[in-house]
Design goal:
Length: 451
Amino acid sequence: MPSRRHSLLDPHTAAFPPLEVRTVTLSLNAADLGDRNLHRLCEGLYQRIVQRAGSFVAVCGNVSAEFGVPILQRRVCVNPLDRLAEGFGTDDVVNIARTLDGAAAHVHVDQIAGYLARVPHGISAGARQLILALPLVLSQTERVQAAVEAASSASGMSLGVLDLLGHKVKETAEASAHRQGIGAAKLAVLANLPNEGPPICGVCPGDGWGDAVIHVSVSAVGAIRHAVEQRQLQCDQADLGVLAADIKAAAFQAARVAELIGQEIAQRLGADFGCIDVSLAPTVRPGQTIAELLQRLGIASFGSPGTAAALMLLWSAMRTAGAFASTSAANHAAVLLPILRDAGLVAATEAGSLAIEHLEHLATVGGLGLDLLPVPGDITPATLSAILADQLATAVVNRRPAVVRLVPVPGKRAGERVSFGRDLGDAVVLDVPSVADSTFIQRGGRIPGFR
């Protein structure tokens, strides 16, 4: 006899829209493993991951099958790596990252995060080593995801840090030139990383959380598209107020199911349940593109006039529905616009309706930032730093999280196509205004916060 929980997803008892769980993240506390001996530290990290996450993938698979909801990625996040790495050199940090990569492969997770340097207020010796090691780490590992929190509304941002990051993004792409610079796609520069969640690029701040915590991120694209299509079958001229109500209902259902799945996985693993992230996020799977969803609302091409208003409609509905559906819903629902994961966005860049300036503007109406943006391989570090500064400045002023993942593609120019394989798909390299003058970034100093 199926439980009442599972009957919520039974197509014979309820009409449920298509839904995908984007990620389930197991966040592990490793603060007690601090050791000045590199071998003991690496061994402790490896054993902690293998022991606590050994059954994680199997449990996710079982719960996914029982609920009939696909789980696209399983991630582990280890905290607080920046403090554990204090006192070690660059070569040691690379060995720590290789240990994480090996443990992730052993437990068969898709990604492992926690390689995080938090430098919005200043840069410690340990954080500097994490940043300096980025090109080696991301070119020599498969599953490690790295992040640097470089700005916050309270403290502003350091141009010295951004100058360093511009060089490291470029060097990381060059170190993985044989794979189209894919190493840079695994490096996120962040602003206003929320300690209460949700996971951003796999990063889960550990302060104030338990030793093992499950976080769930669900994409509402499929559910919302289904709701809009059903309404338009009934009334092709339905106004945006009616559609907004349908979008809220779909996002509410997505949040409820995500919470049920997260609680079930946490219970089976003996972990705490953390938070759910209900966001608008595309995947490479058919029917899961934000551009196509906006076309259903009447936007001719993503980036054309009306795009920002349509995204605001979706963002507002998701925030309201998520908060109503669950007390565990994160406060930072967002619209994710990763160029490399949305075929509709790629088509818009080819058609000329979408450029980097449009994406920067959309950060003010729910966009999370410039995500997985392929840029010309000959872009200068100073231009990369300036793009980071522009996007982080928007986040500082709006007091919202932001993500910037720039991918300089070695040997490619603006307008040329590039393929990153099954997980990221194909894209067109975007044109980026670039000038030789790097005076602004090289002035250094700190841009104050926005209070």
